Amino acid sequence: MVIxxxxxxxxxxxxxxxxxxLGLAVVFLIDINPYILRARLGGDLPVxxxxxxxxxxxxxxxxxxxxxxxxxxxxxxxxSLPTINLGFxxxxxxxxxxxxxxxxxxxxxxxxxxxxxxLGMIAFIFALxxxxxxxxxxxxxxxxxxxxxxxxxxxxxxxxxxxxxxxxFGVFSAIYQARLRTLYSAALIGASGALLAYxxxxxxxxxxxxxxLAAMVGxxxxxxxxxxxxxxxxxxxxxxLLLVIFYITTGLLQNYLEGTLSRRVLWEYGLLGAGLLAAxxxxxxx
Length: 286
Hints:
The protein has helices at about 10-30, 50-70, 100-110, 115-120, 120-145, 150-175, 180-200, 210-230, 235-255, 265-285, and strands at about 40, 50, 85, 90. By secondary structure, it is mainly alpha-helical.
């Protein structure tokens, strides 16, 4: 009989989510101010507002909480974690478990911010609800993805996969809508894609080179962004096209790492990917 792992600390997770939502509400209230402080770096570099600096602080808080929560899991005792040696103390960290909780904040803010002019406070409410739900789901999913019971572990990892795709769509759409110079948009989408790909691939059997594989996914997305920038596509369709590419590349890599990559799997992903890409391209050309 397989004994399940101990339940997560719901009280601490909910407290972290409420703290983040409070901070995100303050960020939105500041962001709607037309006289918000902006940092212009010169040239064609993107403008940075104080809102993004506050979001960065929320990401740091969330990453710290996610790290503490996951390192308290019994199964983490058998994992080899990166260590920061400060001389007088060595600190183990779990950066792979920071990604989804952090992107739950970034993607929710960046995506629903696009609708603030048309939806007003409704966009603000949707952003808070989405950020809170995805953040809590990511924290719980990462806990149960380490469960000793295979069925629980499988369901949790499927949930994390769904969360990753939702976050990828939100981030890709927001960056594409900004219409930044290709150098910046491709770099941002590539970096985001690489991080989210690593968050997916880390659950596969232990293999060396996960960082390189995640970087390959990011590079593929960056090249796709370079080509996509020549089209005047709506940002939602642009985000959808990038999501399809992300889905195909990460899916094939997951099957490869798990040793289940076969001709049938290649055909499945090829046909599904071709169908999704064709649907997006048809929508773009209409």
